[in-house]
Structures are given as C-alpha cells and as structure tokens.
Amino acid sequence: MADTERRSPFDVPFFAFLVLTLLSGGLCYWRGKAVFLQGVDAAWDMMIQVLPKIIGALFMAGFIQVLVPKEVVVRWIGGEAGAKGIAIACLAGIITPGGPIMSFPLIAALNEMGADISALVAYLLSWELMGLQRILIWEIPLMGVKFTALRAITSFFLPALAGLIAQRIARRV
Amino acid sequence: MDVASIIIIALAFTFGIKAYRKNDGSYEAGITLAKKQALATLPKIVLAIFVSGFFSQIVPTELVATWLGKEAGWKGILIGSVAGGLTPGGPIICFPVVYILFKTGAAVPALVSFLAAWSIFAFHRVLAYELPLLGVRFVGIRFASCLILPPLSGLLAQIIMDVFKVEFS
Questions:
Q1: Are B130 and A50 within 8 A, CB to CB?
Q2: Closest chain B residue by Cα to residue A154
Q3: Which of A64, A136, A146, B52 is a good FRET partner for A49, with 20 to 30 A between their CA atoms?
Q4: What is the ipTM of this complex?
Q5: Residues A14/A20/A21/A24 CA torsion (nearest 10 deg)
Q6: How far apart, in Å, do the first and last CA atoms of chain B sit?
Q7: Which residues of B touch A40 (CB under 8 A)?
Q8: Domain finish residue from A67, A94, A118
Q9: pLDDT digits (tens, 9 = 90+) for B19-39
C-alpha cells in the first residue's frame, strides 16, 4: 500500500481483471440472459455494500500511514527480546499500515540490527493475519463483521505461537 | 448505510482531523497517499466485484459444497489450508475468491483456514520480498513455525462455532 512509485491504474492486473470480467460475463450470458442479469444484480448489491467501506478505509489508511512513521515501529520491536518482545511485535504488526513494500524492508532492517527471530516472525505473522488495514479495507467490507470477528479471534494468538516455535527451531539450526 | 460503514468513515474522519491538527503537512500527505491508492485499486475493485457477481452464478455449487462445505468437515479445513497457500496475488484476488466460496456454500472454518494459509504463505510475497530481503534461513524457520497454523485456526473456528452456536446463513 505504501508504494511510492507512480503507478497507472490501468496496469497489467487491471487488464487481467477486465478480461476475466468479459469472460465470466460472457459465460453467464451464454447460459442465458437471466443468468447474466442475476450476475449484474449480485455485483451491484456487493458494490453498494463494499465501496463506501473501501473508500473510507483507504483514507483512514492514508492518514494512519502518515501518523505512524516507520521509525516508531523499528524503535518498538528493536528494543525488546523474549516474551515481551513477541508481545510488542504482535501489537506492532496489527497497526503497521501499508502493504509488503512497507513491512518487509522494515523487517529486513530489524533483522540487520540483530533483532530476535522470534519477534520478527511474530511481527510478520501479526501483520499478515491481523493487520488492521487489510481487515478494514478488505475483510469487513466483503465478508462482514461476524465472519471477520470469528476469524480474528481464531488468529489472534497465532503470531505469538509462531514466534515461540521459531525461537525453539532457531536454537537448533 | 450499515454500522460498519459508519464506523469506518467516522474513523477516517477522526484520523484525518488528527493529521490536520498536526499542521505539518501530514493531512495533505495522507490525502495524497489515499488518492494514489484509490486510483490504483478502485478500478480493479469494481471489475473484481463484477467478476465475483458473474462467478457466483456459474461456480458449480455442488462442487464447492462437497470439497469445502459443512459436510467436508476437517477435510474441508485441510483443503482450505492447501488451496489458500497456493492462491497467488494480493487481497484484491483473494478476498473476492473467498467471497464467492462463502456465497456458494463453503463452510466458515474452511474459509478461515483458507485466509490464514493465504495470509501466511502467499508465495508471490515470499518470492518478491521475503527471500530476497531476509534469506533462506529466515524463510525456512518461519515456514516451519507456521505450518500448523492454518488448520489450527480453522479447527478453532469450528470449535467456537459449535460451542457458541454461531450460525452463518
């Protein structure tokens, strides 16, 4: 999400989606006009449900990205080790905004600073599983609050668990 | 408008006001980031929604129900875990896929596993970022520590749904 390079909205994935839209739409139409119209109806319902949330979330993400600078996260995770380090890493992963372009260079920097692998694995997993930005932009709009809540509850302790396992493995290899 | 939309929009305003009050260009920078991101993603999201709408009409629901439905049980959780790990691309691809599966009869625990596996193992991210930036040892240890997590999360979802009698219509 934090890509700084200028990207045209009409890139390769856009055309891939365009082709998919035409193909799936054509396939529906081939099955009958009613099927096609039902597909359009389903898409329209989804659009009304999803777009206000995604647009709101995009602006929220933009502001959070500005308000939580990378240096803050690095200071947080770099300073602590052990269980406390894992706990802080989990928290930091949740609030780290942006896509892989934001999180991976951060992890690489921490790695070079000598941060504990358990904290790094916990941080990465927490960002992947519990990252607020993805939950707000994608999961809640598409899957609904109930599904998201259930998934978040089941995933909540996984980053810490992975961090602890990573710690054990790292001692042996 | 539903509650979730209102909360998200209210939060966007809250953070916006916070950035504005800082009076150091944060607000403008945030708006620029959001606009850039919106321009990059919204056209694709609109198309992805149409693809979802069309696919929800033509995906063979019996097939989804057999492999990922309630009857599939723990096998659905395992299949979801493997399928999620093999799903390439970012959230713009994954979430519409999960949405379609949800609408065509996949069970929630299987989808929880699917999402967990996709989040944790997304191989496009591993190849593009993790391997080059962190190296083989890190990736190896991380994979080994995460292997059981996707099925575990699905299993937990199943247990929570059974214990608290959570139903998804």
A1: no
A2: B153
A3: A64
A4: 0.83
A5: -170
A6: 21
A7: 50, 53
A8: A67
A9: 999 989 999 999 998 898 888
